[in-house]
Amino acid sequence: MIDAIAWKFQTGSQWVHLPEKYGNWRGVYNRLRMWAADGTWERVFTALLAQADAEENLNWAVSVDSTIVRAHQNAAGARKKGPRLASQMTVPSAGLAVG
């Protein structure tokens, strides 16, 4: 069951494409949802984290792929509603000598 769930998230494939060796995809999906709802996953990860911490075997690596994590449209520089602010006039530096 865990291998089937891991395969799904590792490949990013749809549930219906789960290989037959893992059984019916609906059963795997329903088990994943039940374990998420009843807190099983949280207990498993907490226990694994505690075990790794006790063995001083924690090594955090975080990878964020921009093709998956999307920014909100406002983060892309879209103008917010409201009046536009007048741009500041650029003043040349007094330290430059004109020859």
UniProtKB/TrEMBL annotation:
Pfam families: DUF4096
Disordered: annotated segments: 79-99
Regions that span the bilayer: none
Occurrences of domain Insertion element IS402-like (ranges): 1-45
Taxonomy, superkingdom: Bacteria
UniProt xrefs under InterPro entries: IS402-like_dom, Transposase_6_like
PANTHER family, alphabetized: BLL5188 PROTEIN, TIS1421-TRANSPOSASE PROTEIN A
Protein name listed in UniProt: Transposase
Species whose genome carries this gene: Streptomyces showdoensis
Phylogenetic classification of the source organism: Bacteria, Bacillati, Actinomycetota, Actinomycetes, Kitasatosporales
